[in-house]
Amino acid sequence: MKMGDEACKRALIELLYQLADDDFILAYRGSEWLGLAPHIEEDVAFSSISQDTMGHAAMFYQLLTDLGEGDVDQLAHARPSKERKNAILLEFVNGPGHYLSKPRYDWAFAVVRNYFYIQAKKIKMESLKNSSYEPLANVALKVNIELYYHLMHWRTWFVQLMNADQTARNRMETALTRAFADFDGVLSLGSFGVEMARYQLIEPEEMLKKKWEAYMQPVFDSVNLTMPVDFGKKSGDGRAGEHTADLDRALTILGEVYFEDPAAIW
Amino acid sequence: MILFMLPESEKLIMGTLQQVKDPEIDSISIVELGMVEKVEVRENAVFIELLPTFMGCPALDIIRSNVEKAIRESHNFHEIHVNFVYHPPWTSDRVSDEGRLRLKEFGIAPPPERIAETGEWHVDCPFCHSTYTTIDNIFGPTACRSILYCKTCKNPFEAMKPISTIM
Ligand SMILES: [Zn+2]
């Protein structure tokens, strides 16, 4: 990549914000499950995955810092929702209720959202290993290795619940409908997607989408699920800074400690 | 890192780093874990590059300050630079033979040396060496460990997760 090229740098920064913000908010949603997962083993596994995911977000924010975008903590905590580039599907609350009072979180939604997202992330990392921006290619290689176990974990849950009794199947179908309705937002590279591909930062969006379908098809077949012709962006375009009140509330909670003393080292 | 190829001053540093243990498995050093990628001495400054095992590992800051402290106590440098780098990525085959022994002493099975093409792997029980083991939970108490169960001696045990670039 020619760093002197402003258009290229602009596309790169946009891509890094998408990667960082996606991981950041989903890791937070994952951490809210702590103590509430279906069983103790899952509690350990899910929190381990969320910790890895937060580590990945920190790395992507670090790459932004290196490009002059500001301090990592400020990037993670102090940006308002309209500046966030995460997909809307990833910001939705885990379910009705609150973490501290009467949480009625939806495990089927957690499984579908995480499985679909991690597969998409894995495909992006595979592509980024060949990115023209070498620091990103190096990080992607490292992230990709860790994703291996995440993906295996969520795939196992997905297949088991899809093949379980009718109650489970119904809940999964409801979660699938919600996930598909906004999954385009996850696969989207936003308005700079063409530039990202042109500068060989990452493959074109259509290519990533085709790969996602190709990886998922055999799994869908095995659980008797039809691949939709199209996914949606029903709740808006997160890559363009459109978000729901769910994100605002999450950012307020996440920022509480940070805003008490932004200069403190925790 | 191939020790015998290093100049004398770097070798001394490696000796010091051998004293820095993993905060969560205190029988094994960061050298034996394969975390030390580079040691370079330039006049009064020392530059150390470490590879994190997992990126979200909360022990990284502790390891960094332990390294700085160990170097400060045993050497006279004006500057000590300790950095985590991500390239090459840490893989579980970087754990040295010595390190594999130390893990076993701690009751943790070392990472398997081979992973099947399907991604499946197997480790023997670190207590009775039985091969009759099952994986209970891929995700253990820390990012780099899994929980297994030995059907022979009926003990649960931990294993260091295999991590490879083929994954
Ligand atoms: Zn045994």
Explain this structure.
The complex is a heterodimer of chains A (266) and B (167). The model of chain A has no long low-confidence stretch (mean pLDDT 93). Chain A has one domain: Ferritin, core subunit, four-helix bundle (Ferritin), CATH 1.20.1260. Chain A is globular. With 266 residues, chain A is mainly α. Chain A starts with 5 loop residues before the first helix and ends in a 6-residue tail after the last helix. Chain A has 9 helices and no strands. In chain A, α1 (6-31) runs antiparallel to α2 and α2 runs antiparallel to α5. Chain B folds into 2 domains: 3-84, Fe-S cluster assembly (FSCA) (GMP Synthetase, Chain A, domain 3, 2-Layer Sandwich), CATH 3.30.300.130; 107-160, no CATH class. With 167 residues, chain B is of the alpha/beta class. Chain B has 3 helices and 9 strands; from the N terminus they run αββββαβαββββ. In chain B, the strands form 3 sheets. Chain B has a 4-stranded mixed sheet. In chain B, β8 and β9 form a beta hairpin. Chain B is elongated, with a radius of gyration of 17 Å. The A-B interface holds A 41, 44-45, 48-49, 51-56, 58-59, 138-139, 141-146, 148-149, 152-153 and B 54-58, 86-87, 89-91, 119, 136-143, 147, 161, 163-165, 167. The complex binds zinc ion (ZN). Residues 125, 127-128, 130, 150, 152-153, 155 of chain B line the site of zinc ion (ZN).
